[in-house]
Specification:
alpha+beta; DUF2089; 5 helices
Length: 146
């Protein structure tokens, strides 16, 4: 009898489905209450801690995989995703929020204008575009003037 190697997303040759993290009826968080062994059929019932990474989608897991394999280099994430650095940073921040490792940003309050003698840096301008506080056209004008 030949042995069959099961991949990370397979169960006895069938694809596993990701368990939902929220109840489809009321929207509350679901708890893991049953575990089973695919080898011997043993089942355990009880209240088990859920894996916070299991609720992430495949795009979010891919972003984390690239981030970890590049040893935390967001420039590599930027290249992999084919987006700007501020967008890569924003997406990574969203994953941190989903994992409960960062707070959700509050409503964008208008930033206090810096003194006239302190022009904004390129990174500050790009960050404001990424946050939606500055239009791309205005950013281009500021970058061209500097």
């Amino acid at each position: 009898m030949s042995q069959r190697t099961l991949g990370p997303n397979s169960y006895e040759g069938q694809h596993e489905h990701r368990a939902p993290s929220d109840c489809p009826v009321c929207g509350e968080h679901l708890s893991v209450t049953r575990l089973g062994c695919t080898s011997c059929g043993t089942e355990l019932a009880g209240m088990f801690a859920a894996c916070p990474f299991c609720s992430l989608g495949s795009a979010e897991l891919d972003l984390l995989r690239v981030f970890l394999t590049s040893r935390g280099n967001l420039r590599e994430v930027e290249k992999h995703l084919g987006v700007s650095y501020p967008t890569a940073r924003q997406r990574f921040g969203e994953v941190l929020v989903r994992l409960g490792l960062a707070e959700e940003p509050g409503p964008s309050a208008p930033a206090a204008a810096p003194p006239a003698s302190a022009p904004k840096t390129r990174d500050q301008i790009l960050a404001e575009v990424a946050a939606g506080r500055l239009s791309p056209a205005e950013a281009q004008r500021l970058l061209s003037a500097g």
